[in-house]
Design brief:
Helix content: 40-55%
Number of domains: 1
Structural class: alpha/beta
Low-confidence stretches: 15-19
Shape: globular
CATH superfamily: HUPs
Distance between the termini: 53 Å
Number of strands: 5
Mean pLDDT: 86
CATH class: Alpha Beta
Largest sheet: 5 strands, parallel
CATH topology: Rossmann fold
Radius of gyration: 19 Å
Number of helices: 6
CATH architecture: 3-Layer(aba) Sandwich
Length: about 200
């Protein structure tokens, strides 16, 4: 039985080392591909709304950060991206309506209503930007999401910079920790395997 215990300890050690290596890669992924400080647009990545159609805490945090950046003059337009990926509410519409309630002119808020994941967020936002002749964007999302989003956006012809929204306090540390583990795993998967954007479209 002693060899069994040793084997279990070896497996545990391998898992710990692999997790540490994955976390190191996750935290060292570049979050920009340009030195720009101002952009054509601010892209706010979607998150599911509450069941009643009101903005969820994470969704609110992302939109409010995008609005703050808009007010700072980082870009003259906001793109809210996200379809009805997790319930019947279109994320882009909930986010856009919330931004407008914060005082952003409706003419400065664009809605990308098709995306069901981060790859589609990038793809459809890129299409929307190209229709306006825009070539640069600050991308706003939750901080834990930024490395994965950066790996995705780097595959598109866009000058971009990632910008993190704070974690809403009501989500709690357990949720935040679980999200970081989830994002680190999915980030490593994209880094190692890669993706072809067209394969992820409807």
């Amino acid at each position: 039985m002693r060899w069994m215990k040793r084997l279990l300890w070896i497996i545990l050690l391998i898992l710990v080392v692999a997790a540490a290596a994955g976390a190191l890669v996750y935290t060292t992924i570049p979050l920009e591909n340009t030195q720009r400080t101002h952009f054509d647009a601010i892209i706010v990545l979607g998150y599911p709304a509450n069941a009643d159609g009101t903005p969820s805490p994470v969704e609110r945090a992302r939109v409010l950060e995008g609005v703050r950046e808009y007010r700072r003059g980082i870009a003259p337009a906001l793109i809210m991206t996200g379809g009805s990926a997790h319930n019947q509410h279109v994320e882009a519409d909930v986010m856009a309506d919330f931004a407008i309630k914060q005082g952003v002119p409706a003419t400065a808020v664009l809605r990308e209503e098709q995306a069901h994941d981060t790859i589609q967020n990038a793809y459809y936002s890129m299409q929307l930007m190209q229709s306006h002749g825009w070539k640069s964007a600050e991308v706003v999302s939750s901080r834990s999401h930024l490395p994965r989003a950066s790996l995705i956006f780097t595959r598109f012809p866009l000058d971009y910079r990632m910008h993190g929204a704070p974690n809403p306090p009501e989500t709690g540390w357990l949720y935040s920790s679980a999200v970081y583990v989830y994002e680190a795993r999915n980030t490593d998967r994209i880094r190692l395997v890669g993706f072809k954007p067209n394969r992820f479209l409807p």
